[in-house]
Amino acid sequence: MNDNELFEMIWNNQFMYEVRGQLGKDRYIQAVDILLLIEEHTKFRTYISKDLMDTLYGFAQLLLRNVVDAYAYEINDYLRIQAMWIEIDSILRNILNSQVDKTDNKDIIEELSNNNYIQKLIQDGSFNNKDFQDFINILLRLQDINKEYIEKEIGLLLYSYVKIIRIAFISTTEIEKKEQLEDMWVEVDAVLIDILSYKR
Predict the structure, then answer these.
(1) Are 168 and 132 in contact (CB under 8 A)?
(2) Mean pLDDT along residues 32-57
(3) Overall average pLDDT of the 121-145 stretch
(4) CA 64, CA 163: separation in Å to the nearest integer?
(5) Alpha helix (H) ranges present in 73-104?
(6) What is the greatest pairwise CA distance in the chain?
(7) Interior CA angle at 54 toward 147 and 60, to 5°?
(8) What is the 3-state secondary structure (H, E, C) of 41-68?
(9) Residue partners of 115: CB distance under 8 A and separation at least 6
(10) 149 pairs with which residues across the strands?
(11) Contact 16, 31 (CB under 8 A)
């Protein structure tokens, strides 16, 4: 099964379109089955198509947004939605965790792994504009790497970093800091969408 077929399966799964608080169990189970199939078919690959990565990323962001909204609005089945998120997040990380020890982009992976912006967010929740701009500049360089496919190790870093920024935004109670993190998350999200847009 190729990436286009896997992309079509997850793209057409109706679970993606369920509204907040009405995430259907049957469609959820179907979505998990599709993700497990993707994991099986891609586990020995170094790369996946940008179309597939873009869809997986969008799917994860949609579900995370449901979790955040359910918590914020005290929806009764918050714990159920959170459990869905935890399971799907684990499968997505497995999909992107390449079992092939090979990379064509060692330098940029090292820069992504060691960037100050994310490291400080993880350590103590601090950040500054210079570190953030340096981080964005690294991301922008990814636009010139392979037009159709993305290395799974890079995909895993990008997926993890957006989640870290989003969680930092959720966790902070300082209004000014929260607004800055939201703006940063929106900018990073826009850059990643551009990176994953395969320009034929």
Answers:
(1) no
(2) 86
(3) 91
(4) 9
(5) 78-96
(6) 48
(7) 155
(8) HHCCCCEEEHHHHHHHHHHHHHHHHHHH
(9) 131, 134, 135, 138
(10) 49
(11) yes
Q: HSE-up of 33 (CA within 13 Å, CB side)?
A: 9
One-letter amino acid of 150: I
90-99: pLDDT as tens digits: 988 888 886 6
Mean predicted lDDT score pLDDT of the chain: 81
**Is 181 in contact with 172 (CB distance < 8 Å)?**
yes
Q: Is the pLDDT of residue 21 over 60?
A: no
pTM: predicted TM-score of the whole model, two decimal places: 0.82
CB atoms within 10 A of CB 5: 11
Structure tokens at 42: 């891609």
Which H or E element spans position 151? strand 149-151
Q: Residues of the chain with pLDDT > 90: what percent?
A: 24
Residue type, 152: K
DSSP state of 19: P
First to last CA, the chain: 22
Place of tokens 């290395």: 151
